Amino acid sequence: xxxxxxxxxxxxxxxxxxxxxxxxxxxxxxxxxxxxxxxxxxxxxxxxxxxxxxxxxxxxxxxxxxxxxxxxxxxxxxxxxxxxxxxxxxxxxxx
Length: 95
Fold this sequence. Notes:
Layout: E1 3-11, H1 14-30, E2 34-38, E3 52-58, H2 61-69, H3 71-80, E4 84-92
Antiparallel strand pairs: 1-3, 1-4, 2-3
Domain DUF1330: 2-93
InterPro entries: Dimeric_a/b-barrel, DUF1330
């Protein structure tokens, strides 16, 4: 079943985070992921608000998790650490 990778982000270092975004996109695509939402308009109804929200769809939970643990994504993530506060989760869809 398809899965969604959902990130809620507050960027604290825009230059470093831009490097993360450059590298993360291709790593996500390599693992079958495609972006559904990237920083668009949102309405916060509950919980901690983060100004940037990203949703990517993957073929499966396993594909999304493999992407996260891949060397390519970990290299990208090195630029996000210290440049952002984030929560990231993977959830299987009901499709």
